[in-house]
Write a structure and sequence with these properties.
Elements: E1 5-7, H1 21-30, E2 33-39, H2 46-55, E3 59-63, H3 75-87, E4 92-101, H4 109-125, E5 130-135, H5 138-148, E6 154-156, H6 163-171, E7 175-178, H7 188-195, E8 202-204, H8 226-240, H9 246-254, H10 265-274
Helix pairs in contact: 3-4, 5-6, 7-8, 8-9
């Protein structure tokens, strides 16, 4: 049985991929990862992420200002983002990685909220989905998503929260990102949450080079590990008795990261068509 994947979240502009792009793409392709979405985290990275997408057919760009480096962002950065969006680059498929984060000692949360709102408005104006980061901020983020009502929604990546919080995002039209976290024994609560969600609401991602799978600690994560996330999730689904009938499970999961459940698929297909 062969699988085809889109890795919906890989920081391919970071080491160990830098300088090893062709070989890294080939290794991913050998295990069925056909496309990789590369989210930028700050304005200084925009040109590199766009260049990667332009130079390598399997790569697609997302541009955004990440809350974890909020001190790096300014109004000029937002202006740069708008200027790029105005040009509508062919392989730009999302605004991201954006969001909120209360994990840091000095989160500058007021600034985070302002930068997030500005980017949600841009995503809405340019009809692009969003790739969202959220740590200890799910309820606040859901409030902003409801307020702005994006036409193309997006994904809450690396989700770790309650069933109720996940269901709120799903009700708003957003997908929940599933990655290496669920492979760890200590992540039993996260696995239980994922198992209670409709399968069509979930997306595979690696967050490479971060979020390595259990057993690969200390090693950089890679897109070819998407299959490991799938295997772990399939086991979790069987053990937790997901809502979908078992006869549908494997068939649906074969398409999980490629077919209609992806808010980015339309953008990827259009980019490929125009190429």
């Amino acid at each position: 049985m062969s699988f085809r994947f889109i890795d919906t979240h890989c920081h391919f502009d970071f080491p160990p991929f830098t300088g090893d792009e062709p070989a890294s793409i080939q290794r991913a392709a050998e295990v069925g990862v056909q496309s990789i979405i590369v989210p930028a985290t700050q304005a200084a990275n925009f040109s590199r992420v766009l260049a990667l997408a332009e130079n390598y057919p399997p790569l697609f760009a997302a541009l955004g200002l990440h809350p974890i480096v909020i001190e790096q962002h300014s109004d000029d950065c937002l202006d740069q983002l708008q200027q790029v969006l105005d040009k509508r680059p062919q392989k730009l498929v999302a605004v991201g990685e954006i969001g909120l984060d209360l994990y840091r000692d000095v989160p500058q949360f007021d600034k985070q909220e302002r930068v997030l709102e500005a980017q949600l408005k841009l995503a809405k104006r340019y009809e692009l989905p969003v790739i969202l980061h959220s740590r200890r901020t799910h309820d606040k983020l859901a409030m902003y998503l409801k307020r702005h009502a994006l036409p193309r929604t997006g994904v809450v990546h690396g989700f770790s929260g309650s069933v109720q919080q996940a269901e709120r995002f799903v009700q708003l039209g957003y997908k929940i990102g599933v990655g290496g976290t669920i492979t760890y024994p200590r992540a039993s609560k996260t696995r239980e949450v994922m198992a209670q969600l409709p399968l069509e609401s979930l997306l595979l991602e690696t967050d490479a080079p971060d979020m390595p799978l259990n057993g690969f600690q200390g090693q950089p994560n890679r897109p070819e590990q998407a299959g490991g996330c799938l295997t772990c999730f399939a086991s979790c689904a069987r053990n937790q008795k997901m809502r979908l009938p078992k006869c549908c499970l494997i068939i649906r999961m074969r398409c999980l990261a490629l077919v209609g459940s992806l808010p980015f698929v339309g953008s990827i297909r259009q980019s490929a068509h125009n190429a």
